[in-house]
Predict the 3D structure of the following.
Amino acid sequence: MLSSCALTRPTLESETRFTSVTPAGLRIVPERFVSAESPQDELDSLATWPTPDGSTWLIASAKSTHRLAVYDADTGQRLRTFGEKGGAAGQFKRPNGLAVFGDHLFVVERDNHRVQVLHLPDFAPLGSFGEAQLRSPYGVWVNETAPGELDAYITDSFMYGEKFDQVPPLAELAQRVRRYRLRFDDNDAMSAEYQGAFGDTHADTALRVVESIAGDAAGDRLLIADEDQRHLSTLREYTLDGRYTGRRVPDRSFQAQAEGVALWSCGAGDGYWIAVDQLMPRTIFHVYDRDSLEPRGSFSGEVTAHTDGIALHAAGTSAFPTGALYAVHDDRSVTAFDLGDVARALQLQSSCLN
C-alpha cells in the first residue's frame, strides 16, 4: 500500500519529440486562432462549457502551475485562472484530464491521486473520488446512465522503476481503467461508488501506457489511447462494461504517441473520431469512421504542434457556427479549428455541419 501511494507515471510526454513524415493526402487546415503563449503552465487537457450568457469557455489544465486556465472559446483570449498547488478542495497537484457534464467540471489530479468535481461557473468544490484506488490517473470520460447518475471512466497509468518508465506486469494491466458510479442529489451533493477496473492482459493487446479516453454511449464503445511506442501506439476499442472487443485503428496509424481523442457525433449514429498524432513540427489529426474505425483522412494546422489534449465542441458559437475543434499547442497555448473547414478539407458528410 505504501508503494501504491507513492507511484507516479513519468512525464513521458515531454521526454521525446518526433519529426513527422507527411502522409499522402494530408490536408492543411489553418487555425482560426492561436492564443497567447504561457509556457510556464505546461497545458495538457481541454474541455468546453457553454455559459449562461451564451458565450463558451475553453478550460485547460495547467500541470506545472497546478491550476486551470479559462479562455474565451471564440477568440482564444485568456479570461482567468483558478486554483493553486495543494491537497485541499479547490487546490490541485498536477491536474490532467478534464471533462464537463452539465455544470459539473471533472478534474483528474495525477499527484493527488483523485478526481475533483467542481461546479461552474464559480468552481465551487462539490467533492472528490478515487483516492482509495487511483495511483497515477490521467484521462477521464463521463457518461449519463440515469437522471442524476453518471459513470466516470479514469485511466490509471501507474508505472514502476526508478524513473517510473517500466510497464507493470501483464496481470496488473487489468487495472488500466477504473470506473466509478456517481450520484448527485437535488442539492448537488455527490456520492461515488467504485465499480472496479478493467484492461486486457494479453501480450499483444494489453493497454501499456494510457492517458486519453473517449466514449460513444450510443455505440457502446470506448476508445482508449495506448501511448507506448515501445510496443504499438494505437487506439483500442472497449465496450462500456470494460470488455476489449479486439478492434483497434489500423496498425501504424500513428508515427508518434496516440494522444487526445474526441467523438464528432453527427446524429443518427453517424460521425467520426478525431485523434492526435503527437508530432513535431506539426501535429497530425487523424479522422476515423465512428463505427468501422476506418481512416477518413488526416489534417494538420499551420502552427499546432506536439499536442496533448483536444476538445470537440459540436454546438455552434458566434465565431464557429458549425462547431470547433480545440487543441493544445506545444504545452504553451491553445488553438482552434473550424469544424466546417475540417469537413470541407476532408470531404466529410454534410450532416456533421448541421
The longest strand covers residues 137-146. The chain has a mean pLDDT of 93. Residues 339-346 form the longest helix (8 residues).
